[in-house]
Q: What sequence folds into this?
């Protein structure tokens, strides 16, 4: 497999992890076929990630090989997409699309919240329920 093919398969690999994945810089450097995280290597990695529509946090990759990086797929309607929206809202000036992006983010977060609400209600009820006394 060529390096280009490996980069092209990275979005599917990240999707398999739920649309996001935690990598350290060293893993990215090795994935890029390099040995050390120099400034030019990091620049090429950032370019490859962008070309394959993979976002990353922090937005500027560090050269410290032990630093962790959160990668996310910008295209898929999953948590990676939510991360992209948050990133875009945090790093761009407000414009005509801001309101729509905020609304979209709120809708997506509401969907996630409803998945956890039944558990939160059950847990709250359990905390406030009278405790039985065991003799």
A:
């Amino acid at each position: 497999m060529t390096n280009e093919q490996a980069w092209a398969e990275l979005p599917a690999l990240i999707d398999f992890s739920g649309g996001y994945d935690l990598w350290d810089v060293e893993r990215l450097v090795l994935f890029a076929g390099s040995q050390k995280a120099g400034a030019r290597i990091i620049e090429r990695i950032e370019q490859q990630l962008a070309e394959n529509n993979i976002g990353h946090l922090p937005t500027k990759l560090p050269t410290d090989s032990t630093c962790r990086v959160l990668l996310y797929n910008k295209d898929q309607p999953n948590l990676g997409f939510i991360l992209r929206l948050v990133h875009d809202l945090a790093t761009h000036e407000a414009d005509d699309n801001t309101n729509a992006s905020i609304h979209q983010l709120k809708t997506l977060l509401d969907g996630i919240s409803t998945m956890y609400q039944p558990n939160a209600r059950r847990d709250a009820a359990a905390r406030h329920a009278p405790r039985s006394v065991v003799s």
Remarks:
- The chain has a mean pLDDT of 83.
- The helical segments are 3-16, 25-31, 39-51, 79-91, 98-128.
